Amino acid sequence: MLEIGLVEHRLLDNYAVEDLSWKTQDEYLAGIGQRYRYNLRKECLRLADRFRVETGKPQTLAERRTCYEMYLNVHRRAEEISVFELPFSLFELMHQDDRYDVIRLYLNEHPERPVAVMYSFINDGVYNAMLVGLDYDHVREVNAYKQILYRSVLRAHELGCSSVDLAYTAGMEKKKVGAKAQEVYAYTMAMEHFSFAVLESIA
User: Label partner for 110 (CA 20 to 30 A): which of 3, 125, 154, 194?
Assistant: First the structure.
């Protein structure tokens, strides 16, 4: 692509757990680097019993609205990637599509309302964790974000997927659940050079 005049741009790294062939949790943990394995045990596994995990689509409109509101919480705090806000109607379509999987985490002491949600798309054996939602009142208290990442890996394994794509940003947290960075590049071509020449003369 460089030979035909395209310019290469390094983008943010993508993160993926590429091997889900383990049989037990011990085998899964053994595949994570020692430092990240320690952090996963300290920040996530020791709190796992405080959560109730629900999979499948949320059935009531109230719960679907809550999940959407948690997505908005995360979207409005996003700084590394700027994307437009997705409408609730799109989430309603995902709730009707069997290719989407939804994980919700409830604290045992607050069973009436989820504190984290992950919307994922399953395609050719890849579990694509696409959209996360969080209740920021509980993110630090129980490491809700790390917990939903961990549960996404377990869910992908449960469904027989071959890998988990955890997308961009928050690389440190994703490495703690076994994800590895994948370099991503974009290629562009300038079709009109006069504007570039003007900009260079100004600079």
Answer: 154
Using alpha carbons, list the distances in angstroms from residue 91 to 69, 72, 81, 84, 136.
11, 12, 20, 14, 21
Q: What angle do CA 136, 121, 101 make, to 5 degrees?
A: 65
Q: Alpha-carbon torsion 67, 69, 72, 76, what sign?
A: negative
Closest CA to 106 of 42, 72, 63: 63
Confidence band (pLDDT; 50, 70, 90) for 84? Answer: confident
The angle at the Cα of 58, spanning 52 to 63, to the nearest 5 degrees, equals 85
Angle at which helix 144-158 crosses helix 34-43, to 10 degrees, equals: 110
Asked if pLDDT for residue 128 goes beyond 90, the answer is yes
Pick the closest to residue 104 from 45, 172, 155, 61 (CA basis).
Answer: 155
Q: What is the pLDDT of residue 197?
A: 65
**β-strand pairing of 163-168 with 14-17:** antiparallel
